[in-house]
Design goal:
By secondary structure, this protein is mostly helical. The protein is built from 12 helices and no strands. Helix 5 runs antiparallel to helix 6 and helix 11 packs antiparallel against helix 12. It is flat.
């Protein structure tokens, strides 16, 4: 079994990331001013239409709040939500740093030593196909209700995504370039750092982006399972109290976090891997 084969069982999000790595890294997704204006006008139309419809049909706030009510709740409750946002960011940062680092190291190892891939690939497949939220109660029993179980869950969710995409990138190297480097006496380590790693950078960035998004989803899910802090805890609290405007305000914050993750890695790819076509 190879990691390249096991990735076929992943989610559609991962597949889309793999197939569009070049566009992501090269910045071909840059938009014109006309497109930006069209996007803004569409958002205004959708939000305004939703506001009008909910008011016209007198939909109760506890069923579906109006955008204005969500915005008001976001402004009013943000001082109370901000500490929980900080807790979620700590869990995401620590877990992603651990999982991403291990994923990159394992990707480098299995691409240099095929025998290691045969040993590691089955376990990576298990991690990819197992919902990490199913392990959170077990982690809480072992490590308590603090940061530890959530950070571990984030690392387990993000690491395999980074590894699979990075390994795919390390393999997408022109063999003629490697043969030429070896003819000049380059060592395996030199070939890896001078040829494989730079050529794999677009795929590595895609893997990091997907891993970060999966890590965010896992962190929020873990907070909803147990513990008294984090944005996931706020979702559970507000839904139990039927405070729907505040509930959707937290959803907006989570959506913005996901967008910021994408924009960050897009800009990094545009700056450091824009040569990829």
């Amino acid at each position: 079994m190879s990691v390249g084969t096991s990735k076929s069982g992943q989610s559609g999000m991962n597949q889309v990331g793999l197939s569009n790595a070049s566009a992501f890294a090269s910045g071909t997704g840059a938009r014109t001013w006309a497109e930006i204006v069209a996007i803004i006008l569409t958002a205004v139309f959708v939000i305004g239409g939703l506001e009008f419809s909910l008011r016209w049909f007198e939909v109760p706030q506890y069923v579906l709040p109006t955008p204005s009510a969500v915005w008001t709740a976001l402004i009013k409750e943000f001082p109370l939500i901000a500490p929980h946002l900080g807790y979620t960011l700590i869990e995401l940062s620590c877990g992603f740093a651990i999982g991403g680092s291990i994923g990159l190291i394992l990707a480098a190892v299995i691409t240099q030593f095929p025998f290691a891939e045969k040993i590691i690939a089955p376990y990576i497949l298990i991690l990819v196909t197992t919902p990490m939220l199913a392990l959170v109660p077990l982690l809480i029993l072992r490590f308590g209700f603090g940061f530890e179980p959530r950070i571990i869950a984030v690392a387990l969710a993000s690491g395999p995504m980074v590894m699979i995409n990075a390994a795919t990138g390390f393999r997408r190297v022109d063999n003629d370039k490697i043969a030429l480097a070896r003819s000049y006496g380059a060592t395996t380590l030199q070939i890896f750092w001078k040829i494989r790693a730079p050529m794999a950078l677009p795929m590595i960035l895609v893997g990091l982006m997907i891993g970060a998004i999966f890590g965010l989803l896992t962190a929020v899910g873990a907070e909803m399972v147990g513990g008294g802090f984090g944005l996931g805890n706020r979702l559970t609290t507000y839904s139990s109290m039927i405070n729907m405007p505040e509930f959707f305000a937290v959803i907006v914050i989570l959506s913005m976090l996901g967008i910021l993750i994408y924009v960050f890695f897009f800009l990094v790819g545009k700056k450091w891997a824009s040569w990829e076509t």
